[in-house]
Amino acid sequence: MSGLIGKKIGMTSVYNADGQALACTVIETGPCVVTQVRSVEKDGYTAVQLGFGEKKEKHTNKPEMGHFKKAGTTPSVNSLNSKNSSAS
């Protein structure tokens, strides 16, 4: 898997050796927790579901709370399914 899960903080400038300003995006990448592992036997493909950012329990519906409690984690704001590229 390649990529980042995070939150955009803002923009800034970085100067190279020639003195030119380059625009850069500042991203906060925090601890990502594995909320589910998908397997070929059960789901038909291999993948990992990741969660980033914390969400208050009062803003989480009951099905999502059950999903996070089964994983043993706190509710996440963002979830991402990432399929594994290697065939098994």
What does this protein look like?
The protein is α+β, with helices and mostly antiparallel strands and 88 residues long. The chain contains 2 helices and 5 strands. The protein has helices spanning 40-43, 62-71; strands at 7-15, 21-28, 32-38, 47-54, 76-83. A 3-stranded antiparallel beta sheet has the order 3-4-5. A hairpin with a 5-residue loop joins strand 1 and strand 2. The chain is elongated. It starts with 6 loop residues before the first strand and ends in a 5-residue tail after the last strand.
Keyphrases for this structure?
single chain, 88 residues, alpha+beta, 3-stranded antiparallel beta sheet, two-stranded antiparallel sheet, 2 helices, 5 strands, 16% helix, 45% strand, elongated
Beta-strand percentage? over 45%
How much helix, percentage-wise, in residues?
A: 10-25%
What is the arithmetic mean of pLDDT? 84
Number of H- or I-type helical stretches: 2
Low-confidence segments, given as residue ranges, are none
The gross shape turns out to be: elongated
Determine the structural class based on helices, strands and strand pairing: alpha+beta
* Main sheet: strands, sense, barrel: 3 strands, antiparallel
Multimer state: single chain
Q: How many distinct beta strands?
A: 5
Write the H/E string, N to C: EEEHEHE
